[in-house]
Amino acid sequence: MPAITVQQTPDSQRAARRLYGFLSNQPPSWYGLGILLLVAWATRPALLSPLLLLAILKQGAILGVVTIGQSLVVRSRSIDLSISGVVVVVIWIVTSGAIPLPVPALVFLALLSGALIGTINGLIITRLRASAVVVTLAMAIVLTGSVVAASQYHQPGETPDLLRIVGSGRIGSLPIAAIVWVAVLIPFALSLRTCVFGRYLDAVGSNPTAATVSGIPSLRVMSITHIFSGLTTALAALLLVGSVSVGNTNIGQDMVLNSLAAVILGGVSFGSGKGRMLGPAVGAFMLTYLFSLLIGFGLGAAGQAMVQGAIIALAALVFTFRSR
């Protein structure tokens, strides 16, 4: 009996190519999150319950807000390593009691401090043509040292009630922190797709020299991304200190590497000028879910650190292959 062969029609071939193109263009964070959900379904089904998913979403909102600013900076061919310094400054401002202002004024001052730090980073990098890695890393060290010195006189203390409500409260079953994350994410995502700044950012990330020759203010665009990064980091620090209910200069130190991993796994890479906001957001949730899954497996701090290092190495490999 002759073998039966199935020939694909041109329409089916085009559909298959479109499907392959769609799947291949999705950031690695989508596939990583899918794998984690399958692992949880097979080994820890309790982690798929709506209550736990909402709790993980609340934790992921902090990293997600930081990732928004970091993704903008990376798209502009820069990097922000001053995140840990901004976090400790914000925590000290709102919990030390050294500044006799009402809580709303302290929140405004904290956000203003983050934007100011981002402005300084952007000016030094763009005007002096200094290395973004060196400048932002030095800024983190200076800020952390300054807060440690100031803490000898005014140590971080309890978190104000307003920040506790925002960081740990809920509206119905939805965490307020997650609502804040979405409220910040959506305007950034829409503006990058519809506003001139988004097109400028794509051009600068793809080829800054060509963008400058074309009349695009490349240095200004890069400076603005650093301002946004400092601002979103300050907001994330407010959510963080609200969730832990007490000030501590040692929390939030892992945000730098985790935000970079989320950005790269989310499809944003240096020098490509491409990438959207949703991929890094999924990457932030994926990393948070991964750490919750590791805790469910009983891994301690050492095991979590090893897996975190492996994730960062994976992000570096993803960046390398996407660049090629």
TrEMBL record:
Coiled coil: none annotated. Keywords: Cell membrane, Membrane, Transmembrane, Transmembrane helix. One of its GO terms (molecular function) is transmembrane transporter activity. It is found in: Cell membrane. Its main location: membrane. The keyword Membrane applies. InterPro entries: ABC_transp_permease (IPR001851). The chain crosses the membrane at residues 30-57, 78-99, 105-125, 132-151, 171-190, 224-243, 255-271, 278-299, 305-321. Pfam families: BPD_transp_2. It is a multi-pass membrane protein. GO terms for cellular component: plasma membrane. PANTHER family: ABC TRANSPORTER PERMEASE PROTEIN YPHD-RELATED-RELATED. This is Monosaccharide ABC transporter membrane protein, CUT2 family. It comes from Paraburkholderia phenazinium.
